[in-house]
Amino acid sequence: MGIRGRPLAHYLPAVSMFYGEYEHSVDEKNRLTLPARFRNSLADGIVLARGIERCIDVYASASWLENTARIAELDSLNREAREMKRYVFAGAAVAELDRQGRVIIPPHLTEHAGVVKDVVVIGVHDHVEIWDRAAWAVHLSAIEGSAGDVAERLANQRG
């Protein structure tokens, strides 16, 4: 319960926010069951894409459009802008959850992320990431070792 007996959700914004860390497995047909708490926000369709790190990004369709608008606006006469557009858009795949909350992960994305079977599905505010479980452990260890320094640098950038 939240404040004055009202559920905490009463005070949270209506927009989707993804958080948490969940261990799952990819089956032999490349299907992954997404965490139940994420499914309603992803029910209207999703976009799977290459993550900048070696993971798979999962966006609700509407969120994908918002998040890629900046990339879409990059000047195509600039070589780096073209490369970024290719990386993001060529690797993206539209998908839907089935009745069991599963999504089929395309082979090019499982290869990109090194996903074979055991994965961690993490919420990252406006999207979800799928990581190979061992790769996530290494990445998380590196993050934990530098989180304080990064927070301080970002705070200093804000002025």
Short summary of the structure?
The protein is of the alpha+beta class and 159 residues long. It is built from five helices and eight strands; from the N terminus they run E-E-H-E-E-H-H-E-E-H-E-E-H. The strands form two sheets. A six-stranded antiparallel beta sheet has the order 1-7-8-4-3-5. A two-stranded antiparallel sheet has the order 2-6.
| Contiguous uncertain segments of 5+ residues | 8-15
Order of helices and strands: EEHEEHHEEHEEH
The assigned CATH architecture is: 3-Layer(aba) Sandwich
Using only CA atoms, what is the Rg?
17 Å
Helical amount: 40-55%
> How many β strands by DSSP?
8
Classified by CATH, the class is Alpha Beta
Instruction: Provide the β-strand percentage band.
Output: 15-25%
N→C terminal distance:
36 Å
CATH superfamily: Transcriptional regulator MraZ domain
Description:
- 40% of the residues lie in helices and 23% in strands.
- It contains five helices and eight strands; from the N terminus they run E-E-H-E-E-H-H-E-E-H-E-E-H.
- The chain has a six-stranded antiparallel β-sheet. Strands 2-6 form a two-stranded antiparallel ribbon.
- Strand 7 and strand 8 form a beta hairpin.
- It is globular.
